[in-house]
Amino acid sequence: MRTAVNTKTLTLVQAVNDALRTMLKEREDVILLGEDIGKNGGVFRATEGLQEEFGEDRVIDTPLSEAGFTGAAIGMAINGLRPVVEIQFLGFIYPAYEQIMTHAARMRARTMGHFTVPMVIRAPYGAGVRAPEIHSDSTEALFTHMPGIKVVCPSTPYDAKGLLIAAIEDPDPVLFLEPMRSYRAFREDVPEGKYTVEIGKGKKLREGGDVTVIAWGAMVPVAVKAAESAEKKGIQADVIDLRTLYPLDKDIIADSVQKTGRTVIVQEAHATGGLANDILAVINDTSFLYQKAPVERVTGFDVPVPFFAYEDDYLPTPQRVLHAIEKAVNF
Amino acid sequence: MESQFPIIQIMNEQGCIVRSEYREQITKELVMTMYRHLIRTRMFDRKCISLQRQGRIGTYVPYEGQEACQVGSALALRDGDWMFPTYRDHGAMMTFGRSLTQTLLYWKGRTEGCIPPEGRKIVPPSVPIATQIPHAAGTAYAEKRKGTKNAVIVYFGDGATSEGDFHEGLNFASVFNVPVVFFNQNNQYAISVPITRQMKSKTIAQKAMAYDIPGIRIDGNDIFVVYFETQQALERARNGRGPTLIEAVTWRYGAHTTSDDPSKYRDQEESKRRRETADPIKRMERFMQQEGWWDEKWANQVQEEASVEIEQAVAEMERYPKANPADMFDYVFAQPTWTIAEQKNAYFQWKRGIEG
């Protein structure tokens, strides 16, 4: 996949910026839309410098209207452009929900492939940064439930760039969720230029035979920390970063849970209706007879994401995950 | 359109009354009340920015420059009226009776900050843009149906007029002729996007024409015009004459929030210039000086009183009991569902376990 050899050391948000710059250069049909993404470079600086470099007609500061610019992007996508829209925070996507659910996600199906919507919707998501209320939602399951849109959620700078490029090149709509808690948490080497990470493929971060820990986005570092603590107690964990939430990487899940027979799923979102339940369905369908313990889920609660004074109690922690690992192993 | 919707003033930048019919209503008592609120509101805002810088509260949304809009409109309300604010309207909320402590708790990430003060119908600030506007129309509908004389005020910014909810709310209110005042603070920037990129229309007031309701464009830094025009709009509402859209033209001196850097998208010299020429508090002081109502000693006392009140509120916020995680579970439903009950139970069991 790689065509470049040189690397730069980037944070996740810089890798997003790099992917956008790469694709604006690579393809004339790529166009960015969103609130404050131009002159201001985005509230998280994800689009910093792009309007200056590519012009106001390709990096568009839109009116404050999520339904409006998402709908307009659908129209652009139908007519040959590759729009990438930024929703400032996932918690502000709901006015555009109808546009995504009713139109972006089903245009191909409704027209038997005659009209398609190759667009990307980027949205920072999640809690843990002491943000004001409503800024911390992680409602990925509203979209994994939605037929006709892919949902991608990287946890590292390398994957963020490769997956975003893949999303822009994808023939169908993709929701691209960016864990804002990880935006500047660490840096890693990211190749310059264009490369892709395949949508629909998870990644094994650690090998261990005793238990499988599955996470995505901002919960990946939490899962890894828990696995490191477990190792000190003599428990070896497989850690899987799903990277794509729809369609799930069935094989990577099945291979691991058939080996370990014990699973812990870590999900930031509310428990009921969450993605963990779909992962459970995959385990049930592929690996039922291999299971030695009930699958443990460590999740947020069935309550609105609380004000930040309570978020440490709301969010899954390495301690809570470790507790679940021990429960699964000692069953 | 700008000539059809000129910016109305009662007091000009020099602090002179330009509409003499208001002379008699502008009493010394009213002016002193307004001034006290303006000072308290501004000093509170500055204190919050410093608390945020010190990490004593979270991200904060400043409103400095918009005090005349918020104080003037809130003072026009009556006790039984409703207020639907945004996250930048705590100046209006505090003027209408929300305590300073509660306001601080809100910015400290505490749910208690959303509890309405006793006897006051102040709804929690809306965070997503324009979403409170249809609520205000519905609440006004309910007041009309109950046959009261209560009215509703709803605040929103210039950017909000691009959202569907703004238009849907105005349309609903106008179709049903309900008692609501749509109070727009046009501070001319939606985060980084100037109003000239937000809309092609030259005014916000003209949008009222589409809904066949009165649209009024006022100088939002003139507290007198804000107060009297809001009062008249509220009176029309109470008397069954339906909604009004008020566009109060103003300016925020500072950042969108403490996480924002306005020098990236606008010339800060403009804010400096406006501070000198159009500041709502300076203008009021000029007026008081010309009237012979200015008393340095009294003004110092006003500042001193505000400062004491603010320091007391900060102390109260800081000795407030620790956030109780049970609160996160206990108010989702009237009766907790089994999933919430089980999750709460399991969480506290685990917490007790690790805390020994």
UniProtKB/TrEMBL annotation, chain A:
Boundaries of every Transketolase-like pyrimidine-binding domain copy: 10-185
SUPFAM superfamilies noted in UniProt: Thiamin diphosphate-binding fold (THDP-binding) (SSF52518), TK C-terminal domain-like (SSF52922)
Gene3D superfamilies, alphabetized: 3.40.50.920, 3.40.50.970
Cofactor annotation: thiamine diphosphate
CDD domains: TPP_PYR_E1-PDHc-beta_like (cd07036)
Gene Ontology molecular function: oxidoreductase activity
S-adenosyl-L-methionine is among the record's keywords: no
Record bears the keyword Oxidoreductase: yes
Pfam families: Transket_pyr, Transketolase_C
Family matches, as InterPro entries: THDP-binding, Transketo_C/PFOR_II, Transketolase-like_Pyr-bd, Transketolase_C
Keywords per UniProt: Oxidoreductase, Thiamine pyrophosphate
Protein name: 2-oxoisovalerate dehydrogenase
Classification lineage: Bacteria, Bacillati, Bacillota, Bacilli, Bacillales
Automatic annotation (TrEMBL), chain B:
Gene3D superfamilies per record: 3.40.50.970
Cofactor: thiamine diphosphate
Enzyme Commission number(s) of this protein: 1.2.4.1
Segments of skewed composition (Basic and acidic residues): 258-280
Listed GO MF terms: pyruvate dehydrogenase (acetyl-transferring) activity
Region (Disordered): 257-280
Superkingdom of origin: Bacteria
EC class: oxidoreductase
Pfam family, one: E1_dh
Known catalytic reactions: N(6)-[(R)-lipoyl]-L-lysyl-[protein] + pyruvate + H(+) = N(6)-[(R)-S(8)-acetyldihydrolipoyl]-L-lysyl-[protein] + CO2
GO BP terms: branched-chain amino acid catabolic process
Parts forming coiled coils: none
Keywords, in A-Z order: Oxidoreductase, Pyruvate, Thiamine pyrophosphate
Occurrences of domain Dehydrogenase E1 component (ranges): 39-325
Record function comment: The pyruvate dehydrogenase complex catalyzes the overall conversion of pyruvate to acetyl-CoA and CO(2). It contains multiple copies of three enzymatic components: pyruvate dehydrogenase (E1), dihydrolipoamide acetyltransferase (E2) and lipoamide dehydrogenase (E3).
NCBIfam families named in the record: PDH_E1_alph_x
Quaternary assembly: Heterodimer of an alpha and a beta chain.
Protein name, UniProt field: Pyruvate dehydrogenase E1 component subunit alpha
Organism ancestry: Bacteria, Bacillati, Bacillota, Bacilli, Bacillales
